From TrEMBL:
It comes from the Bacteria. This is Two-component system C4-dicarboxylate transport response regulator DctD. Residues 7-121 form the Response regulatory domain. Keywords: Activator, ATP-binding, DNA-binding, Nucleotide-binding, Phosphoprotein, Transcription, Transcription regulation, Two-component regulatory system. InterPro entries: AAA+_ATPase, AAA_lid_NorR, CheY-like_superfamily, Homeodomain-like_sf, HTH_Fis, P-loop_NTPase, Sig_transdc_resp-reg_receiver, Sigma_54_int. One of its GO terms (molecular function) is sequence-specific DNA binding. The modification 4-aspartylphosphate is found at residue 56. GO terms for biological process: phosphorelay signal transduction system; regulation of DNA-templated transcription. Residues 146-375 form the Sigma-54 factor interaction domain.
Length: 459
């Protein structure tokens, strides 16, 4: 099926053929762009080009096969259809093996060209749609996102790109929820190590023996309970990145062992006498200010200096407030997609909260706020000051209830004092008889409780 309006690039050094083919493609509903040479065509092709390319093989300068090879570098999924003359069939078959989409032999019928273009276009549309879905999913999972336009964040991103490929270990400092893991993840993602493992280990909350075997691995029988050989996280991250979270909580003896690994770049799994070389980048994260000897506490200073070759500091969110709207917007969209809800309109109260709050939980707290706001579960977005009409309503409701209670008490007191005499009670209260009876009913008061004084007919 032809897909109206889709661009097709047609390359041929024969001007007449260019004109005729352009017309054929147009009639089939395509938007052809024709070029007399491969070089000219290349300038119009980028990785997301939504159409396909049809090119003659034999042309002066770059051939159609050269063009195909260049396009493969730009976007390996971009369909290229080769047009061959006599004797080029072998070349074309070779190109098909290399991933060219199709070939048509000259002279060809218009129908044959359109049929090939239709199929190529269908494939292209699918590829692009899948890419879009994948990108959306990535955005949704927040995987790719390292957002922030505050100067400190721009600088941080630039630094991460700059050192991603350098084999230096990195220490990431920042308050809880400020994005330390995001930084570690990008150091890995933007490095040549990205095709290998990113291995994370939280050093807090695990018993020392567990961290040790987690980190270094062990042979079967290395200690009681070690039935099988276990590859440690360090070895697992060979070629990749080892992320040590909450490094400040790492037990002292392990700090010593880790320091040895960092210096020697080799490991010795428990229960072996073997030494294995290891190629890894360590990214350690800490909430503590390890540069300050007081705050460092029992953390080994030599390990600190070893890790401190590069330290990346994440500013707390309250020191980059200009990023709050950007982050909040992205989190709202992501939450809405995840929960299958519409993206909520920002309310004045939500805005006030964004502006006034101090965000001790940093970006994570903002993320959770966005999720609750999307679900309509954000009490923070409720007005905090008395000048809001919403609040006035609420206190009014309280007033009405108080007045009601006061009225009921008053009626009971008067009835009591008058021994249940309704007429006298009505006189004292100065209300119409009907109103009096209505009020008794509404407050659930029965006159009989207050003695046998003469009743007054409610009329
Ligand atoms: N710059 C950012 N752009 C987009 N999302 C971010 C950014 N910074 C943090 N986040 C998100 O905020 C949450 C908290 O970030 P992260 O886990 O990296 O914080 P952390 O500093 O490691 O926290 P903790 O100290 O508690 O371990 C994550 O969901 C993360 O995706
Ligand atoms: Mg973390």
């Amino acid at each position: 099926m032809s897909q109206p309006g889709r661009p097709v690039i047609f390359v041929d050094d024969d001007a007449d053929l260019r004109a005729a083919t352009a017309q054929t493609l147009e009639l089939a509903g395509y938007k052809p762009t024709v070029f007399p040479s491969a070089v000219a065509a290349l300038a119009a092709i980028d990785a997301g080009f939504p159409g396909c390319v049809v090119t003659d093989i034999r042309m002066p300068g770059l051939s159609g096969l050269d063009l195909f090879a260049r396009i493969k570098q730009i976007d390996p999924d971009l369909p290229v259809i080769l047009v061959t003359g006599h004797g080029d069939i072998d070349l074309a078959v070779g190109a098909l093996k290399d991933g060219a989409y199709d070939f048509i032999a000259k002279p060809y019928a218009a129908a044959r060209l359109i049929e090939a273009v239709n199929r190529a276009q269908e494939k292209r549309t699918l590829v692009l749609e899948n890419r879009r879905l994948r990108d959306d999913a990535v955005e949704r999972d927040g995987d790719l996102a390292f957002l922030g336009e505050a100067p400190a964040m721009r600088r941080l991103r630039a630094t991460i790109r700059q050192i991603a490929d350098a084999d230096v270990d990195v220490l990431v400092e920042g308050e809880t929820g400020s994005g330390k893991e995001v930084v570690a993840d990008h150091l890995h993602r933007w490095s040549r190590r990205s095709s290998r493992n990113f291995v994370a280990l939280n050093c807090g909350g695990l018993p020392e023996s567990v961290i040790e075997s987690e980190l270094f691995g062990h042979e079967a029988g290395a200690f009681t309970g070690a039935q099988k050989r276990r590859i440690g996280r360090i070895e697992h991250s060979d070629g990749g990145t080892l992320f040590l979270d909450e490094i400040e909580t790492m037990p002292l003896s392990l700090q010593t062992k880790l320091l040895r690994v960092l210096e020697s770049r080799q490991i010795e799994p428990l229960g072996t006498n073997e030494v294995r070389p290891i190629d890894l980048r360590v990214v350690a994260a800490t909430k503590a200010d390890l540069g300050n000897p007081q705050a460092r506490g029992s953390f080994r200073s030599d390990l600190y200096y070893r890790l401190n070759v590069v330290t990346l500091k994440l500013p707390p969110l309250r020191e980059r407030r200009e990023d709050i709207p950007l982050l909040f917007g992205a989190f709202l969209r992501r939450a809405a997609a995840r929960f299958g809800r519409p993206v909520p309109e920002l309310t004045r109260d939500a805005l006030a909260h964004l502006e006034r709050h101090d965000w001790p939980g940093n970006v994570r707290e903002l993320l959770h706020f966005a999720e609750r706001f999307t679900l309509g579960l954000a009490p923070e977005a409720v007005p905090a000051t008395g000048d809001d009409p919403g609040l006035a309503d609420a206190s009014q409701a309280g007033l009405v209830a108080r007045v009601e209670r006061f009225e009921a008490d008053l009626i009971r007191t008067v009835l009591q004092e008058e021994g249940g005499d309704v007429r006298r009670s009505i006189e004292r209260l100065q209300v119409p008889r009907k109103t009096f009876y209505d009020k008794l009913k509404r407050h659930g008061i029965t006159r009989a409780e207050y003695g046998n004084g003469p009743a007054s007919s409610p009329d």
